[in-house]
Known about the structure:
This protein has 737 residues and is mainly beta. 5% of the residues lie in helices and 39% in strands.
Amino acid sequence: NVVSTIKDAMADVGMETDAKGASLRGPSVFVTPGGTGAIAKVLLNALPFTTITLGIGIFVEPATLHLRANGLVLISEAQAADGSSCVIVGSREGCCSTPLLHIEAAQCTLSNLHIEHAFCVASCRPRELGTNDSELGQFSAIRISGESQALIARCSISCRQGCGIDVGGSARPTIHNCIVEACSDGFILRDSSAATVRQNSVRNCTSSCIKSMNHAEGTVHDNCFENGGHACLLAAGSSSTSFINNKIGDTKGCGIRLCDETTAIVEGNHVNGHHMNGLEAGGSSNAMVKGNTIKGSSGSGMVLHDSSNGVFVNNDISGSVLAGVGIRDRADPIFTGNRVSHGAGSGLVLLDEAKGVIDDNRFFKNTCAGIGIKGNACGLFNKNTVCDNAGYGVWMQDTASGTFQNNLVENNSKAGFAVSHQAAPTLHSNRIIGGQQVGLLIQNQAHGHYEANIISHNKSGNVMLLGSSSGTLLKNLISHSTGGGVIVRGENRSVLSFNTVEGNSRANIAVLDQAKPIFEENLIQNGLGRGLVITGTAAGQYLGNTIRSHALAGVYVGGNAEPHLIRNIVCESGASGIVVEDCAQPHISHNSMCGNASAAVAVQGTAAPVMECNIVLHNGNGGIWLGEKAGGIFTGNRVEESPKGWRIGSHVTARVESPVALGVSLSSFPQYEQELRDRIENAMQYCRPLPRLVNAVFVQNPGVDDKSTIGMVFIKFPSNLLHTCETLSNTSRAANF
């Protein structure tokens, strides 16, 4: 097997061998151990392509062994039956930058050797090799320099106070199937070298198992690294080395560290065992990190910091004690196609001034939030799945911002998307669904823009707006929560426009406390409770909304609330259209109420609304009912004529001015005629059974002051609704219907 190994190794560099593995291109020398400097004496006069075979035993070499002759082969005799082998030991008493073996030859082969370099004097510490320090290298077992294409195979190498193998210059060596252990750094790749390091085992190094620096290139693949000090694998300087399919086991520091301006490729590596952070990227690094597996970090799976950039693709990060991925400082990565799961902290945390493009990732089954954003961080989050986390789906705080689009946030134990402090995100076209608590939570002084999202089936409520927050919610679908559609509390000043709020079990919209939101042009429908509830001392403006088909009242105003309800349509409620009670004092103007099961408007308690210029179509179920002690001002309202058009209780303090039958416009309201016609047509389309409007015209009343008009509405109705459109006389009714 040893002969076969030697033959294969020499064939790798194009050297022919005989049956015993000796080179056919030069002489062969056998060296037996004894004394000191035995190998050095042979190398001194070695010719090109000499094969030097070392016998079993210990070779003590006090000086550097220079391998300069091209094509040298340095191999050991076959291992003895008792396990003894050839050992080369360096005993250095001088400069700590001196190697035991220095390979300068263009071609050279080392195979099946055991090399130990450990005897540096105590007063001479090994130099710390800076990222741009390449002139002398450092204390090492083997140094490869120049343009050497050396081959090192199946060797065992250690250097307790220095580097195992130091590759510099423009060397292009191949190093495989070696054991490198008990070093400061197992490998150092520096200068403009481009080594191929494969299938080695590197362990028990006090600094790093392998370090790439300066402008080093090359490929490091299919190795096993473990028990590094600061990091098992380190890429620094402007290196561009590729690290592929390596296994990284226990280490005191991090598994992989990227720093300075490295553009390393880190692909398909496995980081397991005990380690702090699985991967750290700092400085101005710009690496490609692809398809790696990082498990069980006692810190974070990945930490991206300083001003690092880079692309992080299709990595699997799981079981981290802290955040699965932490992005901080001014880091700005592209993070796409990754899986971050089963962490004891959050999935991904964006901190400080960090940015980034976070695209098409999955953050799931983490103990805290799927995604957390703090400080002044600002990222673009697109097409991510954030699900099944035991905390929040997404948590934002401080002055964080960012854009979230096309993400799925599903089945998280706390709020699906929580925005706190002064955070101000932009959310567009996301799905926030199936949460165990609230879907979208905006609180404190947070704000932001929330458009075209689907917020649905969240148990404790779909949207909750709290504190002094003031978000803008536009064109969202908010539906089917057992806890309510939109809950607005505190001193909230949010604006909600063109949303569809439907199918929620409690109130579709509840406005409480001192909130003063603006609801404009929303469709609020098909609720299992009330449509819109306003109570406490809440106020705000509610403009042009359609509120329809609720099991209970379409609108409920209670407490001491003082909202303004203007140009809304309230129809098809299972109870009254609008209920005003307690001490509420709403301003209700230019609204249309039709097709409600009970009174269109019911005022109870000591409530005192101001109602003006409203249209009330009640189909005999009741128009405007004022209960005992009701107050307020009612002026210019158009109420369908019937015995139930008005009902006024005892002790009522309300002032009812100019009640107007439907179809008649007094001279004081000539400007209202066109709007009245449009509103009747608009309101009717929401009624069931649906009357069909044929024409609506307003004509001059003959023989009366020119400023007076009579409204004539021509409508085709089912027969049971004919009484809805009474005009001034039975004669005209008979003539027109």
